[in-house]
Amino acid sequence: MEAKAIGKYLKGSPQKARLVVDLVRGKKVEEALAILQFTPKRAAKLVEKVMRSALANAEHESSTVNVEDLFVKEICVDSGPTKWRRRVRPAPMGRAYRQMRRASHITVRLSDGKDSVEKEKEE
Q1: What is the pLDDT of residue 113?
Q2: Where on the phi/psi map is residue 67: left (φ > 0), alpha (ψ -120 to 50), or beta?
C-alpha cells in the first residue's frame, strides 16, 4: 500500500529543504518524524507537515494499514516559482542585484513494502 502527499509553493529554498530531506529518506515514518521534530531547520517543519499529510492519507485509504510498517519510499524537493523581490543587494562596480524569493514543491511517498510483493505474484 502506498500513500502520497505533495506540498506545493512552500516558502523556502529547495537547496535548503534538500538538506533536511536527505536525513529522512528511506527511514521508518515514526523515526523520520522524530528526526524532523528535533532538526533545527525551518524546512524541517515544512517536510514534517507534508509527511504527516501523507500519513493521514495512508490511514484514510486503508483502515487496516499498520503505521509501524510504513517507511519513506520516495521523498523529493523540486523548485517552485522564483519571485524577484523589490529589495536590492549591492553588487560589484556600482550595480545592484534584486533579491530572489524561492519556493519549493515537496513530494512524499510512503509505503509498507507489500505492493511490490503482490504485483510480482500476479505476474
Answers
A1: 84
A2: alpha
For 121, residues 6+ apart whose C-beta sits below 8 A from its C-beta are none
Is-contact 100 79, C-beta < 8 A? no
- Whole-number pLDDT of residue 115: 66
**pTM of the complete model:** 0.84
| DSSP-derived 3-state class of residue 91 | coil
Q: So what's the pLDDT on residue 61? A: 87
Low-confidence ranges of the chain (pLDDT < 70): 115-123
DSSP string, 14-81: HHHHHHHHHHHTTSBHHHHHHHHHT--SHHHHHHHHHHHHHHHHHHHH-TT--GGG-EEEEEEEEE--
Question: Which of the listed CATH numbers 3.40.30.10, 2.40.30.60, 3.10.300.10, 3.90.470.10 matches domain 2-122?
Answer: 3.90.470.10
